[in-house]
Amino acid sequence: MATNKVPPLTYKVIAECSASKARAGLMTVRHSEVNTPVFMPVGTQGTMKGVLPDQLIDLNCQILLSNTYHLGMRPGIDILKKAGGLHKFMSWPRAILTDSGGFQMVSLLQLAEITEEGVNFRSPFDNSECMLTPEHSIEIQNAIGADIMMQLDDVVKTTITGPRVEEAMHRTIRWVDRCIKAHARDDDQSLFPIVQGGLDPELRKKCVSGLMERQVRGYAVGGLSGGESKDEFWRTVHTCTDLLPKDKPRYLMGVGFAADLVVCVALGIDMFDCVFPTRTARFGCALVMEGQLNLKNKKYALDLRPIDEDCECSTCKLYTRSYLHHIATIESVSCSLLSVHNIAFQLRLMRTMRKAIEQDQFPAFVKDFMSKHFVDEPVPKWIREALTAVNIQLPNSTEDTAEKKHKRASESQ
After folding, report:
1. Which site among 111, 185, 270, 412 is 20 to 30 Å from 233 CA-CA?
2. What is the mean pLDDT of residues 214-234?
3. Residue 412: pLDDT above 50?
4. Concatenated DSSP letters for 168-204?
5. Residue partners of 315: CB distance under 8 A and separation at least 6
6. Which position among 188, 260, 273, 308 bears the catalytic label?
7. Whole-model pTM?
8. φ and ψ of 191, to 5 deg
9. Residue 121: what pLDDT?
């Protein structure tokens, strides 16, 4: 059978920051080109809550994420195959990345039993049992047709210590071999292994070393954002990006707070995903450079400004904070309007970082971002230390706070 000789994923570093590990790249997959660093909105069930595919295209979203476990439960493999894959089923023409279902080992642990064979789940829908093995995870992802697939990994909470962490790391490496063997569509879809090892740098190093022996087109860093301290978080990311190949994309799973995105781009990460932008929209919160606006707050009742005067999303063009205040969490359309803005905010942040890297102005961007994002408080110590590790020095906290107070006083006069 004839095969497409062009690899289903290529990655090229376009520019690198001369100080930090930040880089801008171009990742090309079957369905679209993806500029990195990139944030991937999460459409777990093949849909973004309150946001249509056409709206995502208007925002120039190049890639989104869906979940293997949930799609395997419903609609299931048979429907996905008959529909010709998830792209056609959800009417999305651009790239898709699928999580393997491994994260549900943590989030649905009370419904799961983990063995060497795989993960035995009890369905939260009808209480039926389902064995998710590495092979079955790949079978579902082949049916989904995602451009990038994740291996099934053995996930443990970051707060767990002891032999279970090392067991999960070694099992993850064994399972990637089973995933590679089961992968039936290597001409169309790329499989990423996942670096595990908890918060132990030596286990992370062992895992990276083991995974790099396999022929893959990119890597994911998993097992973080699960309750560990921010100090442990950034040091683990730093350890992994120091070791992973420079010519392949690096995906940090489940990270989406703006400050975390900026720090982790500085640490050398290319791809991110998180439910945060759409989830916080459902609670009436809008993302802005300073953090979040809780539009349920009474102070926005008469505020006829847009959420963000610099934002060009349809929500900011057409609606005011006052309007959104009156419908937030009450009318379902508020979720849609705020989700559009929040996704636009994340995507614009990534575009701004790409441009700064390409112009070799990334450290200046980081300093400006941090001064605006932490308006009424010093930049956290962990951020300062993480950035210092990659040669970006922020003003000391005393000078930083004094400068912000002086600036606010000048603006109020």
Report:
1. 111
2. 96
3. no
4. HHHHHHHHHHHHHHH---TTT-EEE-EE--TT-HHHH
5. 306, 307, 324, 337, 338, 340, 341, 344
6. 273
7. 0.94
8. -105, 125
9. 79
Distance of alpha carbon 386 from the chain centroid: 19
Among the options 99, 147, 154, 308, which is catalytic? 99
Assign 3-state DSSP to the chain and report helix, strand, coil percentages, each to 5: 45, 20, 40
Whole-number Cα distances in Å, 167 to 90, 181, 184: 38, 22, 28
pLDDT at residue number 147:
98
Q: Is the pLDDT of residue 271 over 80?
A: yes
Check whether 338 has a pLDDT greater than 60.
yes
Whole-number pLDDT of residue 398: 55
What's the mean pLDDT in 348-371? 98
Please give the mean pLDDT across all residues of the chain: 93
* Cα 413 from Cα 63, distance rounded (Å): 45
Contacts of 360 (CB under 8 A, 6+ apart): 15, 17, 18
- Can you say which residues are annotated as belonging to the binding site? 99-103, 153, 196, 223, 311, 313, 316, 341
Whether residue 403 has pLDDT greater than 80:
no
Place of tokens 């890297």: 357
- Amino acid 319 reads Y
Report the pLDDT value the prediction gives residue 345, as an integer from 0 to 100.
Answer: 98
User: How many helices and strands, by DSSP H and E, does the chain display?
Assistant: 17, 17
* 101: amino acid identity, one letter: G
Looking at residue 202, its pLDDT comes to 98
Report the percent of the chain where pLDDT is more than 90: 82
What number of CA atoms fall less than 13 Å from residue 362's CA on the CB side?
A: 30
Annotated binding site for substrate: 99-103, 153, 196, 223
For the question of residue 273 being annotated catalytic, the response is yes
CA distance 34 to 52: 20
Q: Angle between the 201-211 and 163-182 helix axes, to the nearest 10 degrees?
A: 10
Closest CA to 279 of 44, 72, 38: 44
Both structure tokens of 142: 């082949």
Contact between 130 and 76 (Cβ < 8 Å):
no
Whether the predicted pLDDT of 74 surpasses 70: yes
Structure tokens at 260: 């975390």
CA dihedral sign of residues 393, 266, 197, 209: negative
